[in-house]
Amino acid sequence: MREFCFSLRYSPGVDRYMDAFIEHGSLRSEATVSALGPSELWRLELVTGEPEALERVEPLLVDESLDRESISARECQGERTHSLLEEGRRHRIVYTHLAEVAHCDAVPFIAAQYLDGGVVYQVVREDDTARWRIMMQHDEKVGMLYDTLGAQLADGLRFEFGHLEEVTGWHGSLLSSQSLRSEQREVLELAVDRGYFETPREVTLDDLADQLGVPRSTVSYRLRRATAELAKDFVEEPYRG
User: Fold this and answer.
1) Which of 52, 140, 149, 153 is most buried by a 10 A CB count?
2) Backbone torsions φ then ψ of 80, nearest 5 degrees
3) Alpha-carbon span 80 to 99, nearest angstrom
4) Which residues contact 234 (CB under 8 A, 6 or more apart)?
5) Closest Cα partner for 72 from 157, 159, 160?
6) What is the pLDDT of residues 15-68, one digit of tens each?
7) pLDDT for 151-168, tens place per residue?
8) In 3-state terms, what secondary structure has residue 219?
């Protein structure tokens, strides 16, 4: 299996969604996308960041009138629906379905002109950059895709080639087999937010338990399980230095 990686750099004011990442440096989005033919796609997206930044970006995540797909000056025309699947102090998980698309210069739809079915897309957004990874069985027409992507870009977007090589594993945590349970994520996010891991600690387990309304022993157990799962993920993740 082959992977084609590239980045799109956004100038301020070009894209409302990317403007949120430019303005709030703590924000990071990781999404897995699949095109279901030439007129339909779905996206599963994890957005993380400081609580205040997430509150600012959440309206954009669920705004069904906002085009977050097109990379050209032409907006995508279609029926867009969002589902907020999970919400925490430092993360949101949103499912998006775009259907009945008439015109859309989105990366998956452009790629579908040159690549056969079974293609998987990942995109990570940070600061002014959207880093795309396209995984496919064959890359015979990637050169044509490269040219088309560059020609379709709206003013204020810049294309940067990454690499074209064999797939080296699954890069990302959104579909990780070691994902945290919601109650573990909740206590971990609160512990980070309240300064439990600072030196010296700014709160105690009793403080966290009072805020969550659960016994201290429960908080301690969930926090241990969360950190253990994260440690396993870190050790098992292939090195990509």
Assistant:
1) 149
2) -115, 130
3) 7
4) none
5) 157
6) 999 999 999 999 999 999 988 878 899 999 999 999 899 999 999 999 999 999
7) 999 999 999 999 999 987
8) helix
